[in-house]
Amino acid sequence: MIALFCAGLATFAQLYSPQGLLPEIARAYGVGESASSWAVGAATIGVALGVLPWARLSDRVGRVRAMRWAMVCAMVIGLIAPFAPGFVSMIAIRGAEGVALAGLPAIAVTALAETIHPRALGAAVGSYVAGTTLGGLSGRIVAGLAGDPLGWRWGMATVAVLAAVATVAFLVLIPPTALRPGPGMSMVRATLQNLRTPGVAVLVAQGFLLMGGFVAAYNYLTFRLEQAPFGLSLAQVSWLFLAYLAGAATSRWVWRIARRRAPTAVLLGCVAVMLVGLAATLAPRLPIVILGLVLFTGGFFGAHSIASGLISRRAGEARSQAPPLYNLGYYAGSSLLGWLGGLAFAAWGWGGTAATIAAAAALAGLMAWGYARSNGGIAAVDA
């Protein structure tokens, strides 16, 4: 778990380090708000494209070896990305970085599922998600604090160096495993089988919708808070990412509730908290916006932790490919809805972006409720 924490720190710090720097990146390259989001979106598309191949590779060479290869590749590319000469080259490098970074989310949950007792899996996944949450938090804050006085390139470079240190720690600490998974069924067959499993398909769609809305919120709330009536600086905005601590807490906390309540009921409660928090971010007063962001973040990570823990439980023979498929939907939503949220922001401001996010979250909740209703009810669906 310590090794996976270091890997999660390195992966998610690099993946989202440009998010708090998007206004500076937009000004430096002369692009609009929506276009600048591809500094994040290109990497998340890379992750979406890479999760299934990395999962398949891990079936052949082993989980730990595949994660090591992925982390080393990501470390090298991450040190290059901040110094890309143009916007297009930066997007291309970030896409390649995302493909490399995909090795961790593609394999980590499967590795946990194969080595931890099923009754303890939910808490273990919650611990892993909490670690990745802290990685995303540290990457955003460090990039913002370094980027404010030194420029966005050095903000990203600082995160890349810290991620390299965490990667080395992962390589040293990760123990070899005696488990050697077989080749299993083909990637295409496994993917189709999972998509034909309604419980898995619903969770993949939920990952797409909830993560897409979450990334859109953090992408464009940065732009809003730099404008009147707030007028915050880049460094000041970066501190708002401390709201991620709420996610680190709820990622584990929701599984304590799920021992007494149905997991789907807990997931629906988390979606409701997201919507309440999102509504609060529309307020013109900064303390209310911060409170709303904390609620929104905690609700999202709670829902994500529940969905991540359920995906292997609902999958059948193609279980090793189910978590990567969830991650494919998760990061595809990050890229697509993260971009669409920018179009809404350009047309209608933060209110338009918030409405887009609310629609995505509400649809995810309706899908979870509909699946439970058609499979014995909320209390019985994942019993």
Automatic annotation (TrEMBL):
Keyword terms of this UniProt record: Cell membrane, Membrane, Transmembrane, Transmembrane helix, Transport
Source superkingdom: Bacteria
Membrane-traversing stretches: 38-57, 69-93, 99-116, 128-146, 152-174, 195-218, 230-250, 262-282, 288-307, 328-348, 354-372
Keyword Cell cycle (UniProt): no
Membrane topology: Multi-pass membrane protein
GO cellular component, one term: plasma membrane
Protein's UniProt keywords contain Membrane: yes
Compartments where located: Cell membrane
UniProt cross-references to SUPFAM superfamilies, sorted A to Z: MFS general substrate transporter (SSF103473)
InterPro entries assigned to the protein according to its UniProt record, in alphabetical order: MFS (IPR011701), MFS_dom (IPR020846), MFS_trans_sf (IPR036259)
Domain (Major facilitator superfamily (MFS) profile): residue spans on this chain: 1-376
GO molecular function, one term: transmembrane transporter activity
Similarity remark: Belongs to the major facilitator superfamily.
Descriptive protein name: MFS transporter
Organism, scientific name: Leucobacter chromiisoli
Lineage: Bacteria, Bacillati, Actinomycetota, Actinomycetes, Micrococcales
